[in-house]
Design a protein that fits this description.
The protein is of the alpha/beta class. Helices cover 40% and strands 17% of the residues. The chain has 2 domains: 3-193 and 275-319, Spore Coat Polysaccharide Biosynthesis Protein SpsA, Chain A; 194-274. The chain has helices spanning 33-41, 56-63, 66-69, 85-96, 128-141, 198-204, 211-224, 228-246, 250-257, 262-273, 294-319, and strands spanning 3-9, 27-28, 31-32, 47-54, 76-80, 116-120, 145-151, 173-175, 178-188, 277-282. The mean pLDDT is 88.
Length: 333
């Protein structure tokens, strides 16, 4: 199956500036993050075309250079951003449907199986092998929404090697099966998700650091969605386990996460979204190393060559060589 990929490069609402600049245009290794993500997708055999949604004028300035376009093998489209993450994802989906014009069209029954890979711009250590593995596992799962996770072990290479050394430490989801970081990869059949509006809020609170908004969201879920106290209870347990984990209370976090099986979270989120939801685990780790703070970005710049080399070697060892995607004519963005 050839699927479209949507790269979220917007700079409104939940988007966070780094050093006063939108993350899409920050450079690591001499390449803007948005260009690096688009280039990585060229080698993912399951991806047939790439759509980038954000500040259209700035994006065209970065992605429209002849030197960059000459290396593209897949159609590349730029879509002006909308008000928030949800609208960026949904409106871009409407525009990629067959026969859709510049303003897009609403999905028809024939579009319900259309799957889309969603990913952000700030994953400089993503490898084509890890993205491909996630897409293949997600399609095999046959769900409406697949969210990527990576194992704690796969993230250890990004930790500081010594106190004061550059590095990135992650917040984890503490589940019965282990400690996991969300990988920034989403494979969604948007036309099948009844409650798409919750995706925006879930993404804003993905790092589990602000307990007030998380509690408010949990209360709304309790009052408005089926799943009731079960959804609320597991939702709060998961965030409490994450909180104790960040406080260094390992025994408490371990005790709490034993009460949170992955299957129960999948059922609860399925009820919330109004579509089947699965957690898909990959083990390379690079897609989870995003740059959400200035400290993380500075560490990524300093360690880029070492971390990139390690990720490429790990992904190749785990997944083997990928087939070369067929060359396609690339229209101007």
């Amino acid at each position: 199956m050839s699927i479209p990929a949507i790269v979220a490069a917007g700079d409104l609402r939940a988007a966070k500036a780094i050093h006063g600049e939108s993350k899409a245009y920050l450079e690591i290794g001499g390449v803007a993050l948005v260009a690096r993500t688009v280039a990585t997708l060229q080698a993912v055999p399951e991806v047939g075309e790439v759509w980038v949604v954000g500040n259209a004028d700035r994006l065209r300035g970065v992605l429209g250079h002849e030197a960059f376009r000459s290396g593209l093998r897949k159609p590349l489209h730029v879509v002006p951003q909308f008000r928030n993450l949800y609208e960026n994802g949904w409106e871009t989906f409407r525009r990629l449907l067959p026969g859709a014009g510049p303003d897009g069209r609403d999905p028809q029954p024939s579009d319900t199986d259309t799957a889309v890979l969603y990913l952000p711009v700030d994953i400089p250590f993503a490898t084509p092998e890890e993205i491909s593995a996630f897409v293949r596992q997600s399609l095999e799962a046959g769900c409406d929404y697949a969210l990527g996770l990576v194992t704690e072990e796969s993230m250890r290479g990004f930790y500081p090697s010594a106190p004061g050394a550059p590095g990135i430490r992650m917040a984890y989801f503490n589940l019965r099966e282990g400690r996991f970081r969300q990988s920034n990869l989403h494979l969604i059949r948007p036309a099948r998700i009844r409650n798409r509006h919750y995706i925006d809020e879930m993404y804003e609170h993905r790092h589990q650091r602000e307990f007030g908004p998380i509690l408010a969201l949990a209360w709304r879920l309790l009052r408005s969605e089926r799943g009731g106290f079960g959804v609320l209870g597991y939702f709060l347990l998961m965030h409490l386990a994450g909180l104790t984990d960040r406080w260094g209370l390992t025994f408490a976090a371990d005790a709490l996460r034993r009460l949170i099986p992955t299957a129960r979270i999948e059922r609860g989120v399925s009820a919330l979204l109004g579509g089947s939801f699965r957690l898909i685990v990959t083990e390379a780790g690079g897609c989870a190393a995003d740059v959400d703070t200035e400290t993380d970005f500075d560490s990524a710049k300093l360690c880029f060559d070492v971390w990139q080399k390690a990720q490429r070697e790990r992904a190749a060892r785990l997944y083997g060589a990928l087939p070369s995607p067929p060359a396609t004519r690339e229209p101007p963005p």
